């Protein structure tokens, strides 16, 4: 039994990485790797969406790059080596934190240069004014005096003062109002921004949503697939049972269903459905593979070999799947002796 | 009138600001300069699209200047650039155009070439996009000019147009018999 579950998991992962490359791969294989992957990709920019991090993006390229980074982590590369790997292909552009070098001097030092220039300018200006004896306690009115020193009457003084008070109120209040209108105040609370990365919680949420809206066949499919990856085949079977009419028409789905049935221990059900699927599509490598697995499970090695060899002919030569099927065939051959 | 000159400073600052903002408007924010230009083309060994038993590696074309064009049957802009490539292949028989079929399905890709015409000497089949990552591909179609020494001389992101071919690619092909 455990052999079968493991085989299904491998073929599922292989199939989903090939056929569902565009879909988010939600479930962590190894929490240590995933944590490092997240930490690294938080600081890298997605090339396609550009304003998203590599960690947040759902674009195809971001998926691929995360997969690549995952491989590099598993190969024992350091964070710097991984970042260098991406920079050598995509340039400094991928870094949210660009390095300090000749082309980025203006970027790094520009703001400080502007600030220093402003301070120097302000000091020169104030010195000059104090030399001319124009500074008094009220800065706002003295500015008015500088511009029109002779016309500074009492009325203008208080008007200037009111203008300052008005500005002090209007600018922050106006800014806050505009932010409330166009901004996202909820984003100020870090706890709410983080979201919920726990797959268990996300799956539970999806399940609850589907109970409320049971006609969503795609949702059930997604839920069942998630259960399969989480190694909860019995729950997957329950989810698939909700969409049996859809499954009956789709050999790929039948394959997933068979996998769930076999994983949950219902071998009779699995055999029934694998035969139905073969009637519908006799050239589906995954179904042929599952049929072989079920035969193997029964101890019928020649039949297992027969199915697996058919399946082998239909998958991409030299691929991971092909290699895996070949290993299985070898195993069946050694047992049938 | 010394004070008069002081008023020029904000005006000057404003002019500088306008200059940079105006320049920013004419640039494509989606363009990512490639660090690979001037570097040796990353090597690979991929099965060919039409004949999976044969492979293609960039070293096969060492000593020649050639074009590597990244395409896919699912890519809409590739359709737009395709006539330009076909034209190029016809008018430059000595510059091989190699396709890199990126993250595609074999039957779809073969069908696409049948419908649109095939400007490629051959296409390498990059099913999982791994080679694409090595070349820094981020938006199909992309085109690389690779010289006799195997160095990337130019990278174009987005569909080729007759102007791009004329002003940016053909000058790099000087010395190659047409």
Tell me about this structure.
The complex is a heterodimer of chains A (337) and B (178). With 337 residues, chain A is an all-alpha fold. Chain A contains 17 helices and no strands. In chain A, helix 10 (217-229) runs antiparallel to helix 11 and helix 15 (285-297) packs antiparallel against helix 16. Chain A is elongated, with a radius of gyration of 33 Å. By secondary structure, chain B is an alpha/beta fold. Chain B has helices spanning 2-26, 76-91, 106-116, 130-134, 162-169; strands at 46-47, 55-56, 66-71, 97-102, 122-126, 142-146, 152-157. A 5-stranded mixed sheet of chain B has the order 5-4-3-6-7. A two-stranded antiparallel sheet of chain B has the order 1-2. In chain B, a hairpin with a 5-residue loop joins strand 6 (142-146) and strand 7. Chain B is elongated and about 80 Å long. In chain B, 34% of the residues are buried. The A-B interface holds A 18, 21, 47-48, 50, 60-61, 64-65, 68, 87-93, 121, 316-317 and B 9, 29-30, 32-36, 52, 103, 127-130, 132-139.
């Amino acid at each position: 039994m455990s052999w079968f579950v493991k085989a299904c998991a491998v073929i599922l992962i292989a199939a989903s990485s090939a056929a569902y490359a565009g879909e988010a791969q939600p479930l962590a294989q190894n929490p240590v790797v995933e944590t490092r992957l997240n930490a690294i990709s938080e600081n890298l920019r997605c090339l396609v969406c550009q304003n998203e991090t590599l960690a947040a993006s759902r674009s195809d390229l971001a998926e691929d790059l995360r997969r690549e980074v995952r491989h590099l982590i598993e190969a024992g590369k350091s964070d710097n080596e991984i970042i260098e790997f991406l920079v050598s292909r995509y340039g400094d552009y991928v870094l949210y934190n660009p390095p300090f070098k000749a082309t980025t001097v203006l970027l790094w030092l520009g703001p400080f240069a502007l600030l220093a220039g402003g301070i120097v300018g302000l000091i020169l200006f104030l010195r000059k004014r104090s030399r001319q004896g124009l500074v008094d306690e009220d800065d706002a009115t003295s500015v008015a005096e500088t511009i029109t020193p002779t016309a500074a009457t009492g009325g203008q003084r208080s008007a200037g003062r009111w203008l300052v008070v008005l500005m002090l109120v209007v600018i922050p209040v106006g800014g806050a109002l505009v932010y409330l209108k166009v901004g996202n105040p909820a984003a100020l609370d870090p706890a709410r921004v983080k979201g919920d990365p726990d797959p268990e919680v996300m799956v539970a949420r999806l399940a609850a949503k589907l109970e409320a809206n049971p006609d969503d066949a795609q949702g059930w499919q997604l839920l069942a697939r998630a259960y399969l990856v989480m190694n909860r085949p019995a729950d997957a079977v329950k989810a698939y049972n909700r969409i049996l009419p859809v499954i009956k028409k789709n050999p790929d789905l039948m394959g997933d269903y068979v996998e769930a049935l076999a994983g949950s221990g219902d071998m009779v059900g699995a055999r029934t459905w694998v035969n139905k699927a073969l009637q519908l599509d006799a050239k589906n490598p995954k179904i042929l593979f599952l049929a072989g697995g079920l035969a193997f499970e029964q101890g019928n090695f020649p039949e297992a070999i027969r199915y697996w060899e058919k399946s082998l002919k239909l998958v991409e030569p030299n691929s991971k799947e092909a290699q895996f099927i070949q290993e299985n065939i070898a195993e069946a051959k050694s047992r049938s002796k | 009138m010394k004070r008069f000159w002081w008023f020029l400073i904000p005006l000057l600052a404003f002019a500088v600001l306008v200059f940079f903002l105006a320049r920013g408007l004419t640039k494509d924010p989606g363009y990512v300069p490639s660090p690979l230009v001037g570097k040796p083309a990353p090597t690979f060994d991929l099965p060919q699209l039409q004949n999976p038993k044969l492979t293609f590696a960039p070293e096969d074309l060492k000593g020649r200047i050639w074009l590597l064009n990244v395409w896919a049957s699912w890519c809409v802009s590739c359709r737009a650039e395709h006539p330009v490539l076909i034209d190029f292949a016809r008018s430059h028989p000595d510059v091989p155009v190699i396709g890199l079929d990126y993250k595609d399905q074999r039957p779809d890709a073969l069908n696409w070439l049948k419908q649109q015409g095939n400007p490629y000497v051959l296409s390498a089949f990059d099913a999982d996009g791994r080679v694409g990552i090595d070349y820094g591909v981020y938006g199909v179609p992309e085109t690389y000019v690779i010289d006799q020494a195997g160095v990337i001389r130019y990278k174009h992101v987005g569909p080729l147009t007759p102007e791009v071919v004329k002003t940016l690619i053909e000058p790099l092909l000087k010395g190659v018999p047409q």
